[in-house]
């Protein structure tokens, strides 16, 4: 901890695509995995393609190990890329897919194949060297694509939605394995995803991209605990409010006041999970510090819980058990008292 690692990647990406403008600065250290997380159309793929040299920049730069590669052609960048659907050459064996890059870099056929065999072996795919891509499982195809990207000994590894082509039942296993393989890579890794779980598991650091800009950046746990935009709050399942703190009271932009645990002053964000919200049919005695009478806006199943959406002085989500729902007799348009303990409300500078 505390040690500053040297940046392998340092990039300032500015480009236009029609009305869309991307303006993103990234820096990734040796051995570090950065996830670009964001909604559809946010500009994640554009950023990745710009790093690979597949999209030209209108401004800014791409530096790898201190060398300027802003204008280096795609095939000469020290970059390996894993595409969303892997784009393996279907008419070639797994081995030849992996050997392709080294061959293009001028390695002899024997050397390229030896390097490919070594990588496949390392990824527990030695028995599949002669297999055609269509005969591989999703997880195996992903590893062949990763081996192909690493075969050119890149300093920068780019992964575009690496889990997208996999079915849900295999994702957990494949994700864990990918994480271990990425941990061994000593260059910089940038991966694009719109799945918060991928970002949390695979990345050391997350940059949230919205509307072509980085709106939040930090360690996964920090981003999850202290979201800075409604998009991130929804992703990680937190209620999020913006307001002004005066000691332990935060006056929200909508007019409600939330009592929080830790004193602050000035512009602030308040976050708490839906499970921290208790619902009561009548105003409770000896109540928590935060209590509001709100209107039920909707009820939905959420795992083995029920998520109740409430509106009024503030809009929030509450998770309760199906038994509690029956007991409260909640109906859309009805009212209910919602309480949150100050100790559960996280406050941080906004
Ligand atoms: N071929 C194109 N021509 C013009 N504009 C484009 C083109 N492709 C994308 N765009 C614009 O660039 C914006 C960013 O697209 P990009 O694919 O980088 O987003 P993304 O975050 O990767 O989204 P997704 O997860 O849907 O791939 C889009 O909102 C769109 O307006």
UniProtKB/TrEMBL annotation:
Annotated ranges, domain ABC transporter: 3-236
Xref: CDD domains: ABC_Carb_Solutes_like
Sorted UniProt keywords: ATP-binding, Cell membrane, Ion transport, Iron, Iron transport, Membrane, Molybdenum, Nucleotide-binding, Transport
GO molecular function: ATP binding
Pfam families cross-referenced by the UniProt entry: ABC_tran, TOBE
Residue stretches in coiled coil: none
Span of domain Mop: 285-349
InterPro entries xref list: AAA+_ATPase, ABC_SmlMolc_Importer, ABC_transporter-like_ATP-bd, ABC_transporter-like_CS, ABC_transpr_FbpC, Mo/tungstate-bd_C_term_dom, Mop_domain, P-loop_NTPase
Matching PANTHER family: SPERMIDINE/PUTRESCINE IMPORT ATP-BINDING PROTEIN POTA (PTHR42781), SPERMIDINE_PUTRESCINE IMPORT ATP-BINDING PROTEIN POTA (PTHR42781:SF4)
This protein's name: ABC transporter ATP-binding protein
Species this protein is from: Nocardiopsis changdeensis
């Amino acid at each position: 901890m505390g040690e500053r690692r040297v940046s392998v990647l340092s990039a300032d990406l500015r480009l236009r695509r029609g009305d869309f403008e991307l303006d993103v600065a990234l820096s990734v250290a040796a051995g570090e995995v950065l996830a670009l997380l964001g909604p559809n159309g946010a500009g994640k793929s554009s950023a990745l393609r710009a790093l690979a040299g597949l999209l030209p920049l209108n401004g800014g730069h791409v530096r790898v190990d201190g060398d300027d590669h802003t204008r280096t052609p795609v095939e000469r960048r020290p970059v390996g890329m894993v595409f969303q659907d892997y784009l393996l050459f279907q008419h070639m064996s797994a081995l030849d897919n992996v050997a392709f890059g080294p061959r293009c870099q001028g390695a002899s056929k024997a050397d390229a194949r030896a390097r490919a065999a070594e990588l496949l072996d390392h990824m527990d795919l030695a028995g599949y060297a002669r297999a055609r891509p269509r005969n591989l499982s999703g997880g195996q195809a992903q590893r062949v694509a990763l081996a192909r990207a690493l075969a050119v000994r890149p300093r920068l590894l780019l992964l575009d939605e690496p889990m997208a082509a996999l079915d849900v039942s295999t994702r957990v296993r494949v994700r864990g394995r990918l994480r271990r393989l990425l941990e061994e890579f000593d260059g910089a890794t940038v991966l694009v995803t719109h799945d918060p779980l991928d970002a949390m598991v695979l990345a050391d650091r997350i940059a949230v991209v919205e509307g072509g800009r980085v709106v939040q950046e930090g360690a996964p746990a920090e981003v999850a605990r202290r979201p800075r935009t409604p998009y991130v709050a929804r992703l990680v399942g937190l209620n999020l409010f913006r307001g002004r703190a005066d000691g332990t009271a935060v006056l929200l932009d909508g007019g409600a006041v939330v009592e929080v645990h830790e004193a602050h002053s000035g512009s602030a964000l308040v976050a708490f999970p839906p499970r921290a919200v208790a619902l009561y049919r009548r105003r409770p005695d000896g109540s928590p510090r935060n209590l509001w009478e709100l209107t039920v806006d909707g009820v939905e199943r959420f795992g083995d819980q029920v998520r109740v959406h409430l509106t009024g002085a503030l809009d929030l989500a509450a998770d309760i058990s199906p038994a509690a729902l029956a007991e409260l007799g909640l109906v859309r348009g009805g009212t209910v008292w919602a309480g949150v303990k100050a100790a559960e409300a996280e406050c941080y500078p906004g």
